């Protein structure tokens, strides 16, 4: 593929990205249009000052020097133009204020919409997406990358267009003042624009590199902070520092590459501008000697060239902003264009029977990577109110069954039903509202205990929170805390014990009055006393509800109605505790290993 073709493709990508980005400005088109009008009005106002200076020099000052005006008349005329100039400065200041305010408001409004759309899409993505993407990188998308788009709307594409129009408008005005001097300017403008275009290519690749290194750094920082206790326990601080140092060095080098190109571009532009200004002065001196140019016109010409020089100097910086936004937008749209592997049905259907909690797996097969099977031919049913236990070695497929039941993933073969309805025909939110999953690793949010139990769900008031906590005996430790249910919860519940966090998770699950309760190894790390509390509470709470319990501690599931023994992704044994012991198979071997 030729380089020319690559450049064309790059241009098309830029235009496509810009069209998508500008589409987010459509709901704010009035504000956006007003901003554009004020920007171009500001360009017109900028030409007032040089014109007033020209009229003052070629009017009262020139008249006084030529002897056609006395001192009093010349001073009166000059004061009039000075007053006019001061009024013009106030007008320019107000227009500038309008520019900054309106563009900032537009940028923030658009960025708010993009950030909300991105977060909303992240919520809709399947767990498999989060399995493949580090948290730190996703945080960078929602914060740093989105903020880069704010720069695009406040000082990027619109101002870039304005500056290009300003350059063209200034050149036309310069021809009106003096064609000879304007031609000199025209000779130097193409090299300046060429430098800016050449800089664009380097800026694009550099900003891609910077954003990539920044995402890696954020990802590792998030991981290291979350796992700091493990790092300290195993004495890995040195290795962690080394890896962090390498990532920061990579990020530094990426930034230095961007700085290098920008530092090279700016002096080259200045050199060309100084050469242009020197040539203009030399040619202007000759024109004044021939009386084809007045001193006032020369100063007017010079000041207007400065009006144009500003945008030319900043053209590379604007490309800098634009390319940073392009790099960020590509990353953002890559996330937005990622489809969810689990999609809600076009027309969700309600179950054909009343809510009861019956579940059925019919020859279900599943693979995370599409190659290695995790589940094969899983076939079982649970009647309403029945308590089913899933046991087996780590990696046997027990937790995958729960993920499929809650429809975090879709099975590649077979069918799963809840109350006779295929889970793929449910709205995922309705399905998950009926299934309370208590994971082994409980996640608590910063807030209060009551907020963590209710999670803001409709219909769950304070009284319902208290009833749920009392049912699982979580109230025993909650009521001892200062503030009780209003007691603060630190990030991830760091101030609570493992048992306390799991009791809160029980209360959270039961507050929603679910049809099915799933305990995913929830008692694996609870002390004996706390486990006794939970078993006592669950004995009453599981009445009338279907329960699926996953546990390595077989003592917690001996009273289950049925036990399903998983081995290498298949159900090898089914029966009660006594029946499975009598079979003397996999379950009996696991039981003997635990109680030997």
- Largest β-sheet summary: 6 strands, mixed
The strands making up the biggest β-sheet line up spatially as: 6-9-10-3-11-12
Secondary structure: number of strands: 12
**Strand-residue fraction?**
5-15%
CATH homologous superfamily identity of the largest domain: ABC transporter type 1, transmembrane domain
Overview of this protein structure:
There is one protein chain. It is built from 20 helices and twelve strands. The chain is elongated. Helix 6 packs parallel to helix 7, helix 8 (179-226) packs antiparallel against helix 10 (237-289) and helix 10 runs antiparallel to helix 11 (295-336). The strands form three sheets. It has a six-stranded mixed sheet, sandwiched between helices. Strands 2-1-4-5 form a four-stranded antiparallel sheet, covered by helices on one side. A two-stranded antiparallel ribbon has the order 7-8. It is α/β, with parallel strands linked by helices and 596 residues long. It folds into two domains: 17-336, ABC transporter transmembrane region fold; 359-595, Rossmann fold (3-Layer(aba) Sandwich). 65% of the residues lie in helices and 10% in strands.
């Amino acid at each position: 593929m030729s380089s020319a073709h690559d450049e064309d493709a790059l241009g098309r990508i830029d235009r496509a990205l810009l069209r998508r980005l500008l589409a987010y400005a459509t709901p704010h088109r009035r504000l956006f249009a007003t901003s554009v009008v004020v920007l171009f009005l500001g360009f017109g106002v900028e030409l007032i000052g040089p014109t007033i200076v020209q009229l003052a020099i070629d009017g009262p000052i020139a008249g006084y020097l030529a002897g056609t005006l006395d001192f009093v008349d010349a001073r009166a005329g000059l004061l009039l133009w000075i007053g006019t100039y001061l009024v013009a400065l106030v007008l320019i200041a107000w227009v500038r204020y309008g520019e900054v305010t309106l563009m900032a408001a537009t940028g923030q409004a658009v960025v708010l919409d993009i950030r909300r759309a991105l977060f909303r899409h992240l919520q809709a993505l399947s767990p498999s997406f989060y399995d493949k993407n580090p948290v730190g990188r996703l945080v960078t998308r929602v914060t740093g990358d989105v903020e880069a788009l704010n720069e695009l709307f406040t000082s990027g594409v619109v101002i870039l267009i304005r500056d290009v129009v300003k350059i063209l408008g200034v050149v036309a005005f310069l021809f009106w003042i003096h064609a000879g001097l304007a031609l000199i300017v025209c000779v130097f403008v193409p090299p300046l624009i060429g430098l800016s275009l050449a800089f664009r290519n380097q800026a694009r690749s550099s900003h891609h590199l910077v954003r990539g290194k920044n995402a890696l750094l954020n990802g590792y920082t998030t991981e290291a902070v979350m796992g700091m206790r493990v790092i300290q326990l195993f004495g890995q601080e040195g290795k962690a520092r080394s890896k962090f140092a390498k990532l920061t060095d990579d990020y530094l080098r990426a930034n230095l590459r961007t700085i290098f190109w920008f530092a090279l571009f700016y002096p080259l532009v200045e050199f060309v501008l100084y050469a242009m200004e020197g040539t203009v002065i030399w040619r202007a001196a000759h024109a004044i000697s021939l009386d084809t140019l007045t001193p006032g016109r020369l100063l007017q010409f010079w000041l207007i060239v400065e009006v144009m020089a500003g945008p030319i100097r900043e053209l590379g910086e604007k490309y800098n902003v634009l390319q940073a936004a392009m790099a960020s937008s590509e990353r953002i749209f890559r996330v937005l264009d990622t489809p969810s592997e689990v999609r809600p049905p076009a027309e969700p259907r309600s179950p054909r029977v009343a809510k009861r909690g019956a579940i059925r797996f019919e020859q279900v097969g599943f693979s995370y990577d599409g190659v290695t099977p995790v589940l094969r031919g899983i076939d079982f049913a649970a009647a309403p109110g029945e308590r089913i236990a899933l046991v087996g070695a780590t990696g046997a497929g027990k937790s995958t069954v729960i993920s499929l039941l809650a429809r975090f993933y879709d099975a590649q073969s077979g069918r799963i039903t809840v109350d006779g309805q295929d889970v793929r025909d449910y709205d995922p939110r309705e399905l998950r509202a009926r299934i309370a999953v208590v994971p082994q690793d409980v996640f608590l949010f910063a807030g209060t205990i009551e907020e963590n139990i209710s999670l803001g769900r409709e219909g769950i008031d304070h009284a319902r929170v208290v009833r749920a906590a009392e049912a699982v005996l979580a109230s025993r430790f909650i009521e001892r805390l200062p503030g009780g249910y209003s007691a603060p919860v630190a990030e991830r519940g760091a101030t609570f014990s493992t048992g306390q966090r799991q009791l809160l998770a029980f209360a959270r699950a039961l507050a929603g009055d679910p049809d099915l309760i799933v305990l995913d190894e929830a008692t694996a790390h609870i002390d004996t006393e706390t486990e006794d509390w939970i078993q006592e509470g669950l004995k009453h709470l599981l009445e009338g509800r279907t329960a699926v319990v996953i546990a390595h501690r077989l003592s917690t599931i001996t009273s289950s109605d049925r036990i399903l023994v998983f081995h290498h992704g298949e159900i090898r044994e089914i029966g009660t505790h006594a029946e499975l012991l009598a079979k003397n198979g996999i379950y009996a071997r696991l039981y003997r290993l635990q109680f030997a």
